[in-house]
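Table S5 (text form). Sequence records supplied for joint modeling of the two-component complex.
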Amino acid sequence: MVYIAVDLGGTNIRVARCNAEGQILARVGYPTRAEEGVEAVIARIIHAIQEVWPADEPVEAMGVGVPGPLDPHTGVVLTAPNLGWENVPLADRLRDQFHVPCFVGNDANLAALGEWQYGAGRGHKHMVYLTISTGIGGGVITHGVLLEGAHGLGAELGHIVVEAKEGPRCGCGQIGCLEAVASGTAIARMAQEAWARGDPVPWPDPSGVTAKDVAEAAARGDPIAGAIMDRAAFYLGVGIATFWHIFNPTLIILGGGVMKAGDWFLEKIRTYARERAMTLAYVTPIVRTALGDHVGLLGALAYARMRCAQGSPA
Amino acid sequence: MVYIAVDLGGTNIRVARCNAEGQILARVGYPTRAEEGVEAVIARIIHAIQEVWPADEPVEAMGVGVPGPLDPHTGVVLTAPNLGWENVPLADRLRDQFHVPCFVGNDANLAALGEWQYGAGRGHKHMVYLTISTGIGGGVITHGVLLEGAHGLGAELGHIVVEAKEGPRCGCGQIGCLEAVASGTAIARMAQEAWARGDPVPWPDPSGVTAKDVAEAAARGDPIAGAIMDRAAFYLGVGIATFWHIFNPTLIILGGGVMKAGDWFLEKIRTYARERAMTLAYVTPIVRTALGDHVGLLGALAYARMRCAQGSPA
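The corresponding structure-token record, covering 628 residues in total, follows.
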């Protein structure tokens, strides 16, 4: 039995044919080029699926990971700021084309599911996945169930409030979200704030500084960059302690570009999280993702399999 | 089929015989008198159960709600500060006495379950219950599952961190928990802090002021008490927004002594929560508990029924 997995990102479209064991049997990728509009992107997805479609085997289902709020029951993408999409009935479009069930899910939720089925989370019925990059996304498995919430809008772990009164404004419009103090965007903003304060920052032009620049300078021993990364690690630790108290999971998995900073950064996060746990009974391993760049495709595969098993309407 | 429900609190023990429909068929209550020690309290529970035990019907199971961390798999109460208990094998003790399955659960989780099965939460597969009294307890139903976590320590919703850097210290030892800024204890502490600052507080002796005193003064129009209650409502709203983003529930239920403040307090909480939601798609009704003083007994009943249905080892 084979499945089609689609990882639709703001930058790239990745499509694969997979088997249920998590093997990628064929794979293609294209730039998304969202600026060309919804129809052009859907045409590119359809073309990519045709390229990996099996010659002589039935396809059980398709799974699609999308960056933005969507209705998992109808497969309609409500908004996807990175794509400029609004109310796109993606599941219907792909089902009409290929005549197999198609399930559309939030990319971070699907990544959590992929790590649970095929990656670092295997065997854990309670786990929390965080992806820390431009924003902070999350996915939760609790009691062996993917937490999507009543309308598929749950597990927005980057939008727990950790600095309610005086925190910086978040990209979501709210104040003091975890994403506003610990994402890649937040790290870059703190670097610009340090420059604006007149701190001797190690970047000649701080207007274009990225989280990667800050992490590299911190790794080289720059004290200002070190303090910025320390602050992000502190808030990630606080967030993880909150997730320990809410979900009592057996594992925390961290992914995303910001986690490409060295092990010193992961170790800082672990230390802060442990300090903020109510008791040591909550403390669990905090590990990196195991699936790397494949997490999107394997998450989409895992989601298609889960929804098929649930017998949800396609 | 009948069940025995036990609501073991720091002040009172309540025991009832119930049917599966949530009717209380017989009920007794005694002061807990925890200072007399573990054995005296267990003897009192056993005596109370004997009083409501049916004359001529089999008992399907017993459910017991306990205020403190416990292992729901073994029924051992790990610590219960209000009782002075440590590592008490309560389920075993009651099962040895009565020879029916006995399930012990966290009281706030059981209250959520009771509201879900018999109270304000009927029909909601995704709901969050908060009890705001001395501390803040929580219970979550997500995808129709009671969220207990891997070791029964989950849903500690009072211990999400909302003021990570500068928040007050919480009773749990951590900093800036929701409980530290919005519980009855926090409201009383803010009243004492106002007095210490020299504010013209409306209480002659602020050392013994309670959350109830503050709420009453606020209802009478006292501006200092009003500002304190407003601050607590703000943080409860922030917490609810965080739970909306995490669980995407269809209902929030609020109970506990602090909620006995008038509807003006509930309305403030609703306003702050709505302001802090990422989008209106997350906003749901925020209502009071429906079961009142019976929530503990009906929660214990619902828990016994749930565990029986799961076929968990008794």
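Note: Chain A has two domains: 2-111+293-310, 122-289.
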